Amino acid sequence: MKINRSKVVIVGAGLVGSSTAFSLITQGVCDEVALIDINEERAQGEVMDLRHGIDYLNRNVRVKIGAYDECGDADIVVITAGPPPKAGETRLDTLEASKKIVRSIVEPVMKSGFSGHFLIISNPVDIIAQYVWKLSGLPKQQVLGTGTALDSARLKSFIGDMLHVDPRSVHAYALGEHGDSQMVAWSHVTVGGKSLFEILDDNGRRFSRVDLDQLAHETVKAGYEILERKGNTYYGIASTAVGIIKAILYDENRIIPVSTLLEGEYGVHGVFCGVPAILNRSGVKEVIELHLTEEEAEAFHRSAEVLREFVQN
């Protein structure tokens, strides 16, 4: 009798990679977590630290140093390696450096016989996810980026604070680039099943100063603000990545806005963009195509064109 063990490999043992590993282990999401990093001493230190907390967790997750030739039986390989943007830079400015790093990762992973899912966190995530898809030769549904999943969570947090409700009761999506050109599908924002527009109209006096454009701007800039204050962002994206991993490993059919290849959805062809998608054991089972307003559709197309320009260069 064969007992299948779920295995997640994380490439990059920096703050994002180690936080993702910590979140996987504390939640007991999988049977095994392996860390790979060019700095083997750093990776070994993270593995030791993570192992020493197992006694107080609800599951004995195996944590180990990984190697590329051991990726053949992995369910998911998470790529976090890449340079963060420097002061004054956007995520797009890190593209060339990220591509070199990612190529050095994907090629040996694929040589191992890997046939699972790639989850990309490295920025600029939409373009890097598309690059990994082309390098790997895997089906499009098996390569995805975290996309606008974290942006959408930030947006829901801001709306929840504004309305004094639990952000988990808010349904809202940031779409397009995980970056400066992203947009918000305001026509589809609901709170407890009620349209945000209706809530604002019904409570005009309470919310007379609400500026939706400012909320969208704050969502875009949230990552940069965290970067300025503490040097990097890692808890939010780690939790986001683990939510995506759980949806895949547990075959949840959960809808999360991830970066995936569009082939006509939203009128866009041949570009990885952040859009809501059904995630299950197959990866991206289906893209959810929202009926955007004309203004929203134009904003989404502009964002997609920003990404297309960088993909073609």
Automatic annotation (TrEMBL):
Assigned EC number: 1.1.1.27
Alphabetized UniProt keyword annotations: Allosteric enzyme, Cytoplasm, NAD, Oxidoreductase, Phosphoprotein
Chain residues that bind beta-D-fructose 1,6-bisphosphate: K156, H171
An annotated GO cellular component: cytoplasm
Gene Ontology biological process terms from the UniProt entry: glycolytic process; lactate metabolic process
GO molecular function ontology, one term from the record: L-lactate dehydrogenase (NAD+) activity
Reaction catalyzed: (S)-lactate + NAD(+) = pyruvate + NADH + H(+)
Domain Lactate/malate dehydrogenase C-terminal: 148-309
NCBIfam families (UniProt xref): L-LDH-NAD (TIGR01771), PRK00066.1 (NF000824)
Family per record: Belongs to the LDH/MDH superfamily. LDH family.
Protein name: L-lactate dehydrogenase
Species, as recorded: Ligaoa zhengdingensis
